[in-house]
Amino acid sequence: METGTILALAIYFIAMLAIGLYAYRQSSSNLSEYMLGGRKLGPGITALSAGASDMSGWLLMGLPGALYTAGISQIWLAVGLILGAWANYLFLAPRFRIYTEIANDSITLPDYFEHRFADRTRLLRLISAVVIVVFFTLYTASGVVAGGKLFESVFQLDYVYGLALTVSVVIAYTLLGGFLAVSMTDFVQGIIMFLALVLVPLVALNVVGDLGTTLSIVETLNPNHLDLFTGTSVLGIISLLAWGLGYFGQPHIIVRFMAIRSVKDFPVARRVGMSWMIISLGGAVATGFIGIAYVHQTKQPLADPETIFIMLSQVLFHPFITGFLLAALLAAVMSTISSQLLVTSSALTQDFYKTFLNQHASDKTQVLVGRLSVMLVAVVAIWIALDRSSSILDLVGNAWAGFGAAFGPVILISLYWRKMTMPGALAGMVVGALTVLFWVFSPLQIDGQQLNDFLYAMVPGVAFSIIAIVLVSLLTKAPDNVVNQHFDAMEKQLKS
């Protein structure tokens, strides 16, 4: 490994730890500060931290690898994500920000569910916390796999050591500064990712020649790679577009909406966030697609398509710039892992420990438990990631579908339909989660394909969740007056 590359990565690591230390001095003793940053994030940090925590290592590895392997038909996934993120900003974000503050200043998603439905049984809090811990542990494992592959590919470091190194840095700044550290590092990481995804495909295209040359090479190798529809089906396109439905239920993304300082900041946050996302996804798509032509033209060996970004970063740039570009990949991995660790930690702390074990726990005790929870989840994620053959995109896809189906319909409908009941919410959550688990792990097949290969689990998961919510809500007792009061207060704030 070149000295310049090592120097650039060292600077990156030190910067992340410095941000964590700064955040520790600002927000480590108060639970609301540690878990939600005191609800005072600006629109720029909100947008880029949401984007960076959303995209993870799959943006620079999974998506380019999919384009490299299957061609332009995989772009439907990016289209679905763009539409879903835009709808999330427009239809969920403002109402969710207002309602979580009105509903007893909820600082976690299970908090919101309990207060929104006046649930005295605490079943919603318990089930939603279980869903968060289960699916986020899988999701965190996908980021750990990406980190392990990075260090294995670039440094020829043992895969297991790569896992440990990736997680250790993330744990350090997450333990120190909590939500503020995670959001600030995500902001910096989002900028690094953006620049890298603009730079790498442009330089690669210049080496290949131009867009015409790229298209010609790809067509010669496999004409189907240029067809938006070849190699997929109507159900396949629906499956890719359905990724966008997941945005309504992703705790690590919508928690940013809870933390923004004012609803009036959302238009700016939406413009910044969507611009970042469209350009970044375009860069990832271009990296995989142009990579096909580059590898063919230069005869550069590529053992794993998911490492096309890493390979281009190593061969096209000065070692110091290579270090910067690899830092972008680490940024994508770490930003998501840190966000997921923090949300899972908040579920274990607020929704298990405080609710069921120590109801009178002080803020200091809860922050300590939160930090211990970060360590616990990280260890389990490493254990899952020890399977070297794990596909980053598959792990992300399963967790994304789980959250999208379990939480998405419940959250969105709860913000618009005041007659939705606690049993309806519980039914939607359980049915959505179980449908995804069945769809992903069932041995059943359709036309010789596993269910999740035939149709992405998000589609049946969301559909059955909505049906369960509506049917059970209509058959059970309407919510009490406190829900109507909260709804009236939310509508009043939205109009003002």
- Give the helices and strands as they follow along the chain: HHHHHHHHHHHHHHHHHEEHHH
* CATH class call: Mainly Alpha
Count of helix runs: 20
Give, in spatial order, the strands making up the sheet with the most strands: 1-2
Can you walk me through this structure?
Strand 1 (445-446) and strand 2 (449-450) form a beta hairpin. A two-stranded antiparallel ribbon has the order 1-2. It has a single domain (3-392), classed as Sodium/glucose cotransporter, CATH 1.20.1730.10. The protein has 20 helices and two strands. The N and C termini lie far apart (57 Å). Helix content is 78%, strand content 1%. The chain is mainly alpha-helical.
What is the fold's blueprint, element by element?
Blueprint: H1 3-27, H2 31-36, H3 43-55, H4 58-70, H5 75-102, H6 109-116, H7 123-155, H8 159-208, H9 211-221, H10 234-241, H11 251-259, H12 266-298, H13 308-316, H14 319-357, H15 363-385, H16 392-414, H17 422-441, E1 445-446, E2 449-450, H18 451-454, H19 458-475, H20 481-495
